[in-house]
Amino acid sequence: MISKRNSAIFLILFVSVSSPGVASDKTGPCSADASKLCSGVNIQALASCLDSHQPELSPSCRAWRQQMSQNQLDLMACSKDVERLCPKINDITQRSQCIQLHEKELSSDCRRYRKWADEQTKRLIKGTLAGECADAIQTICKDVKPGQGRLRDCLKQNENNVSPGCKEQVEKLK
């Protein structure tokens, strides 16, 4: 079952590909290219600016922008699938559950996007837990396979044996 937090992360990832290949943060794969080649350009024009400098982009920025462009195409296919399979469902949690029920009916592009989004969600959650909960994950939950809330559940079940910082992070993942 998809939690509200995972639904929110999925929504963030859903929105993040609306401007393909633009790193809005200062640490993204295109941040150095954007600073060097498009200094002073506002975020709305950044994608166009980077496009105009395609040959000069670093390999990591080019690869990232290509992946984001593919994600945007996959997302458009996914949006059509969701509208076809789950019409009139506006609640994101209910929509996510509907999508799961119709998983086999989704287009291959949508399934590819969902796989990418799931990997990103796992990476974000793992990153959140890894800092504060690294010791507990390596000791208390060492045999737990990450994904589907299993790590969170293990940490929550053992909340009396984890650090206060880890306990706080686990509470945020509800």
List keywords for this structure.
single chain; 174 residues; mainly alpha; 8 helices; 0% strand
Task: Please specify the SSE layout and strand pairing.
Layout: H1 4-16, H2 31-37, H3 43-52, H4 59-85, H5 92-101, H6 108-139, H7 150-157, H8 164-172
Helix pairs in contact: 1-6, 4-6, 6-8
Mean of the pLDDT scores? 78
Q: Please count the helical segments.
A: 8
Rounded to an integer in angstroms, the radius of gyration calculated over CA atoms is 19 Å
Ranges where pLDDT stays below 50 over 5 or more residues in a row are 1-26
The helix-strand sequence is HHHHHHHH
* Shape verdict: flat
End-to-end CA span: 12 Å
Largest sheet: none
Q: In total, how many domains does the architecture comprise?
A: 1
How would you portray this structure in words?
Helices cover 67% and strands 0% of the residues. The protein is mostly helical. α1 crosses α6, α4 (59-85) packs across α6 and α6 (108-139) runs antiparallel to α8 (164-172). The protein is flat and about 55 Å long.
Q: How would you summarize this macromolecular structure in one to three sentences?
A:
The protein has 174 residues and is an all-alpha fold. It has 8 helices and no strands.
